[in-house]
Amino acid sequence: MDRFSDRGSTPLWSISKKFQMSTVIMKRLILLILTVVIMLTGCSSDSYLPQTEPGFGKTVVRMGIKDLGSIDMRLFGDDSSEAYNLFVEKIEEGEYRGASVAAVIRDYLFMVRSSLMPSDIEVPEDMKTSSLFKYDPESEVYPIYGSVVVSESFAVDGSFMIVTSSKEDIDEIEEMLHYNGVTLGDYLINAYGIKLSEEQLDIYREAGGAPWIYGVYPCIGQVFGGMDLVERILKESETMDASYRPIEELVISDIVIED
Fold first, then answer.
1. In whole angstroms, what is the distance from residue 243 CA to residue 184 CA?
2. What predicted TM-score, i.e. pTM, was given to this entire model?
């Protein structure tokens, strides 16, 4: 007789089986806890991107594109923001009524210029403004996908762009850089002089956007309705090679401030 049998000992196979069952239960418990934590804290870019929340910008504007539809934007800023004030002023003076879409680049931007400046005329370098473009490495808003950003010639021709670089575009850029042994952070520093933390880079990895213009071009708003129209235009429009101006004119019926 086994010397352990009279002590009511538990066979090793039984102990092993119980241990395996306990391990499975523990793993399931850990997974459940992690799921609850993620649900409570949120795992999307919205958790750390207040600019996408309705209360971040209170001025709502609607841009109509003739025969196609409209795009709704929520503007950031207040009376202390020079870029914001100038944009509102141009809207109220009707400078965008009858204007044309100036450029469309699928993985970068959708640009509009004031009707006072024909879209096929380049603004001379000496007329471009610099007062609005003071590098701000601590800006609390980011040029993510759908952001409204004013261009360097904004004061002269009223040009602004909607950022159209998606999360997938950023992934593709990182893959190409990785193939060449370069990180996205190093590329931005060397090519644009823009230094971003990994946390900031993660914003673009999650939400898309144009990190190469962060802190340089003022980000004054965010599209919250109509990006499907923007995407359709980007997909269907044929453009001129050098300027990216649509061959078929896209007319802005108006841009108005909503009550």
1. 27
2. 0.75
